[in-house]
Write a structure and sequence with these properties.
Helices cover 38% and strands 15% of the residues. It is an alpha/beta fold. Strand 5, helix 7 and strand 6 form a beta-alpha-beta unit.
Length: 252
């Protein structure tokens, strides 16, 4: 009896991510969900610029490369071109989604585009060398905030789920993390629900994954996972921020 199998939707090649980076965990969860829902042959992933820029090397489904921040716009076009036969997801970091791509994110959510967004929030620009991101915490030291993020000069970190929850459009918004086994399991449930919502035609679903970046945080992998718990989650609380289907059931 097999107790472990590699997801078919995940290509069997070494990942390029740094030791301790949680991108690999999330990749596996997305691949497991694609397998379990039986949608590999109709799934199209959109990978923009960022640490996940080469996600097309890892997912065993069609992939499209998008310009920095434009993944929701590309996903909208792909989905609308053949809505009945395509399951479309974007896989984006915080610099991509919450900075240069914020307009695309907000308007896709406002229109309730029937796409699935996987949002990796590691509070820093990873691929380009560790600059301050829109989600970097107050006081966090980065390459462009060597004395810590100062809200007087740089404003406050953006809480994407909370912000989007104020829009009427989105179907489902949840923030999860993958710093321990329990949270990994919960993250998979959220990702599966986000894909199932698209299959059911419910609309825009975004799962924010609070993630680690040991290299640019200047930490060991263990320290980075602990920092998620001690520093990230107090500012970015886990939970469901919008679920229209659940709200409608409660109203009934």
């Amino acid at each position: 009896m097999a107790v472990f199998e590699k997801p078919h939707a995940l290509i069997d090649v070494p990942l390029h991510y740094c030791p301790g980076c949680t991108h690999g965990i999330v990749h596996r969860l997305v691949a497991e969900v694609i397998d379990e829902l039986g949608i590999e042959g109709k799934t199209i992933g959109i990978a923009p610029v960022g640490c996940s820029v080469m996600a097309y090397n890892y997912f065993n489904c069609d992939m499209i490369e998008a310009a920095h921040g434009r993944a929701p716009a590309v996903a909208t076009g792909v989905k609308r071109a053949d809505p009945e036969n395509h399951i479309v997801f974007t896989y984006q970091g915080d610099g991509d989604l919450a900075s240069i791509g914020m307009a695309e994110t907000v308007h896709a959510a406002a229109r309730n585009e029937n796409i699935t967004v996987i949002f990796i929030n590691n509070a820093i620009y990873g691929m380009t060398g560790g600059q301050m991101a829109p989600t970097s915490l107050v006081g966090q030291v980065t390459q462009t905030s060597p004395y810590g993020r100062d809200p007087k000069a740089c404003g406050y970190p953006i809480k994407v789920c909370e912000m989007l929850s104020e829009l009427v459009g989105p179907e489902y918004l949840e923030r999860v993390t993958v710093n321990n086994v329990k949270n990994v399991r919960n993250a998979k449930k959220a990702i599966k629900k986000a894909f199932q919502n698209q299959i059911d035609g419910k609309g825009f679903s975004l799962v924010e994954v609070v993630s680690s970046c040991p290299t640019n945080w200047g930490m060991t992998p263990k320290q980075a996972l602990e920092w998620i718990e001690s520093d990230m989650l107090p500012y970015y609380p886990l939970g469901v921020y919008k679920d229209r289907s659940a709200e409608q059931k409660e109203a009934e």
